[in-house]
Design goal:
CATH architecture: Orthogonal Bundle
Low-confidence stretches: 1-16
Strand content: under 5%
Structural class: mainly alpha
Radius of gyration: 19 Å
CATH topology: Farnesyl Diphosphate Synthase
Order of helices and strands: HHHHHHHHHHHH
Number of helices: 12
Distance between the termini: 35 Å
Length: about 300
């Protein structure tokens, strides 16, 4: 559940967290490297879309071969072999399901295809469907490691992962637009009087900011839906999740302090934020997402 779509690839992924149980750590690291490999194939460099899709398809086939006990194909790039070996060990140790990994690959492939075609999201339903494949599988895999299978926990995990994905999309707005990716929906453009054909890289940021802040409210609603989950998990996973939730909330506050001007100003968390997150995690309550704590507004050029 501690997922952000791109993080210095996966910066919210609990790879090095001291509260991540040690018996899960090799599996979590293996999943991280799988996700990072797929993300690099979809995002890094200037490779053509067709080649990116072919590489993602090759990765999918290699992973399917592991899960179906067909072994690692000889054509697998040497750079992938340590990642695949670790992933295979995690699969065998924890009986990991294949479907969440395939869902992640679906999302990466969609990013490549839609970017190449200049396709946009029509409405929030389409965007949430993307989040269900690009983010929610991570939470489900972590719950699987914890032996948590009940339907309510899965729903709450999905809500948290979707919220974190949405937060990351608005945090990374400028980077995504530069890559040719747009997660601002056509429906949001219409609601705020922004022309569908407008190039969001050049419109006044004051016109774009209300759409960002509206997206943050949608993220906050999803945080609310999962806010009680930490209290129903084991102590260490519960703490991991409390820190993740409070971190996501803090990024929302940073975006709001920027008045939604994240196209040119990517909000980042620093040492003081870490102390705030820790203090809030210690006081975490299941009932509701707290209202935004007032922060000093950041001056941004108009």
């Amino acid at each position: 559940m501690s997922l952000a779509r791109r993080v210095d690839h996966y910066e919210n992924f609990p790879v090095a967290s001291i509260v991540c149980p040690g018996r899960w750590r090799p599996a979590v690291v293996a999943l991280y490297h799988f996700a990072r490999t797929a993300d690099d194939l979809a995002d890094e460099g200037d490779t053509a879309a067709e080649a990116r899709l072919a590489a993602l398809a090759a990765l999918r086939h290699a992973v399917q071969d592991l899960w179906h006990a067909r072994g690692e194909p000889d054509t697998v790039p040497a750079a992938w072999r340590p990642m695949l070996a670790a992933l295979d060990a995690a699969r065998r140790a924890h009986d990991l399901p294949l479907s969440p990994l395939e869902a992640l690959l679906d999302a990466f492939e969609q990013d490549v295809r839609w970017s190449a075609a200049g396709r946009r999201y029509r409405d929030e339903a389409e965007l949430l469907d993307y989040c269900a494949r690009s983010a929610n599988p991570i939470g489900r895999l972590l719950l699987h490691l914890a032996g948590v299978r009940d339907a309510q926990a899965l729903r709450e995990s999905d809500a948290i992962c979707t919220a974190l994905q949405l937060i990351n999309l608005w945090q990374d707005l400028g980077q995504d637009l530069a890559r040719g990716r747009c997660y601002v929906t056509d429906a949001a453009r219409r609601r705020h009087g922004l022309a569908l054909e407008a190039d969001l890289r050049t419109v006044p940021e004051s016109a774009l900011a209300p759409l960002v802040l509206e997206g943050c409210q949608l993220a906050r609603q999803h945080l609310q839906q999962g806010w009680a989950l930490p209290g129903r998990l084991g102590a260490r996973l519960g703490w991991e999740l409390r820190l993740t939730l409070q971190g996501g909330l803090r990024v929302l506050e940073r975006i709001e302090a920027l008045h939604g001007h994240t196209r040119t100003h990517r909000p980042r968390l620093g040492g003081r934020d870490a102390l705030v997150i820790l203090g809030r995690a210690l006081r975490h309550r299941a009932a509701r997402v707290p209202a935004t704590t007032p922060m000093r507004a950041t001056k941004v050029p108009q």
